[in-house]
Amino acid sequence: MTWLDILYHPIWAVSTALLALVVRIQRRGRWDPQACTVQLKGKTTIVTGANTGIGKFIALDFARRGARVIMACRSESRGTAALGEIREKTGNSDVHLRLVDVSSLDSVREFAARILEEEKALHILVNNAGVSGLPRGITKDGLEVSFATNHLGPFLLTNLLLDLIKRSAPARIVNLSSVNHKKGHVDFSHFHGENLTYYMDKVYNHTKLHNVICTNELARRLEGTGVTATSVHPGIVMTEVLRHYPLIVRLIFNLIGFFFFKSAEEGAVSSIYCAVAEEMEGITGKYFDCDCSLTLPGPLARDAALAVKDFEVCERLTSKL
Ligand SMILES: NC(=O)c1ccc[n+]([C@@H]2O[C@H](COP(=O)([O-])OP(=O)(O)OC[C@H]3O[C@@H](n4cnc5c(N)ncnc54)[C@H](OP(=O)(O)O)[C@@H]3O)[C@@H](O)[C@H]2O)c1
Ligand SMILES: *[C@@H]1O[C@H](CO)[C@@H](O)[C@H](O)[C@H]1NC(C)=O
Ligand SMILES: *[C@@H]1O[C@H](CO)[C@@H](O)[C@H](O)[C@H]1NC(C)=O
Ligand SMILES: *[C@@H]1O[C@H](CO)[C@@H](O)[C@H](O)[C@H]1NC(C)=O
């Protein structure tokens, strides 16, 4: 036997396939959305960034349950394509596209105004739109673009829709954060692009920490209103999330991901769980892991005094002067 014979021996193919199968079975969550019979007929839902990745599968699930689904997307063409796909797959024609660029406060205000005009209720809001690896940029509101997209825009959106959500109680707000929030720090000068270094997803990690902090503070403020707010980690999911990274990084991610990471459909499960599962009724201010288990977020995300301060800073930054 030469070393080439060993290299190409069928044993490798068989064991790789077996390993992949075991990993696939293992990474399947504990909760199965298909087995959950909750119906959303008569309920109105909004999912941001619903044209691809995790958001598309969240919207698809809500549509299957008979909800009125508003897909909040920034691209008309990408949004329309996903809208057609979801309508066709579910037979639900009460699925609609509304355009919003969550990184722009003006766009968020316009979007929210239209929703308040057109919708009588809002039972589920999923803040899913997000970016990773964007180069440094400052929006016309003077905000650093990753912070504007992942945190301040969605923060404003949630606040503008809050009265409608409260009137629709019981209602749920679900925010997609990430386990990366544990590596984030809070420095309010970050919001303006100061004191930031752009390496190893550091900026992303900071933004995802603000998500958990403000979700928890919002939950505290909403106590007794019948509106709950939870944050989730979707898992490591094969989506377009690395679109701003070099091709080689994406190739390696996808190669490893094929065996070990979740599909976008699997990545949507923990968010769907928080949004619809009966056992989640009334549970608020908590963080859920990708297997739908209740998990303690990082220490900074549990600092109540920091949360009050962060929420106030974000309110000030997103209020009209
Ligand atoms: N994938 C992971 O491993 C992972 C891990 C932890 C957390 N997450 C979180 O999960 C969420 C969904 O990510 P994904 O993996 O599904 O990513 P994705 O495939 O890149 O999808 C992101 C979605 O957000 C939209 N979006 C981005 N910027 C926007 C803006 N300024 N205004 C409106 N929409 C915008 C995108 O729209 P376009 O298509 O038009 O750009 C797209 O629909 C994000 O919050 C992400 O941080 C993902
Ligand atoms: C989740 O909600 C909070 C409170 O409104 C908001 O500050 C935060 O930006 C939201 N998170 C996401 C990912 O949109
Ligand atoms: C952030 O940078 C400013 C100057 O731009 C500086 O005054 C401040 O101390 C820095 N904050 C932190 C936490 O490093
Ligand atoms: C951001 O979080 C990820 C995942 O926890 C970690 O691998 C990475 O090192 C973090 N980046 C920095 C700069 O802390």
From TrEMBL:
Gene3D superfamilies linked: NAD(P)-binding Rossmann-like Domain (3.40.50.720)
Keyword terms, alphabetized: Oxidoreductase
Entry's Gene Ontology molecular function annotations: oxidoreductase activity
InterPro entries with a match to the protein in the record: NAD(P)-bd_dom_sf (IPR036291), SDR_fam (IPR002347)
Similarity field: Belongs to the short-chain dehydrogenases/reductases (SDR) family.
The protein, known as: Retinol dehydrogenase 12
